[in-house]
UniProtKB/TrEMBL annotation:
One GO location term (cellular component): endoplasmic reticulum membrane
Pfam families in the record: VMA21 (PF09446)
UniProt protein name: Vacuolar ATPase assembly integral membrane protein VMA21 homolog
Domain of life: Eukaryota
PANTHER family: VACUOLAR ATPASE ASSEMBLY INTEGRAL MEMBRANE PROTEIN VMA21, VACUOLAR ATPASE ASSEMBLY INTEGRAL MEMBRANE PROTEIN VMA21 HOMOLOG
Organism encoding this protein: Leptosia nina
Residues passing through the membrane, by range: 21-41, 53-73
This protein's record includes keyword Endoplasmic reticulum: yes
Any single GO BP term: vacuolar proton-transporting V-type ATPase complex assembly
Organism phylogeny: Eukaryota, Metazoa, Ecdysozoa, Arthropoda, Hexapoda
Keywords: Cytoplasmic vesicle, Endoplasmic reticulum, Membrane, Transmembrane, Transmembrane helix
Keyword hit for Ribosomal protein: no
Length: 89
């Protein structure tokens, strides 16, 4: 019984990390699109609506690639970590 709970904990941590990054990958590019469009291109630079949408979409795609890169980097860096040896007294 105890061994089953010990095996579930890393699985839960992996699941939590994946969910966190999925939300991060979905929310951050969408927010960056609207923030950049509204604040930068529409309010400050006064670019035409269609042009500001295109530029904002480009920014959102770049942000999406950065967030995906962070997820991949995290996945590889965790996979390369050696397991900690268990000290037995």
């Amino acid at each position: 019984m105890i061994e089953g709970n010990a095996n579930e904990l890393p699985d839960f941590q992996v699941f939590r990390t994946v969910i966190k990054y999925c939300l991060f990958i979905i929310i951050v590019p969408v927010l960056s699109f609207f923030v950049v469009k509204t604040v930068l291109f529409d309010a400050l630079l006064r670019v035409e609506p269609i042009t500001s949408s295109v530029y904002s979409a480009v920014v959102a795609v770049i942000v999406l690639h950065v967030t995906l890169g962070l997820y991949i980097y995290r996945a590889y860096s965790e996979a390369e970590k050696p397991e900690k040896p268990v000290k037995r007294d």
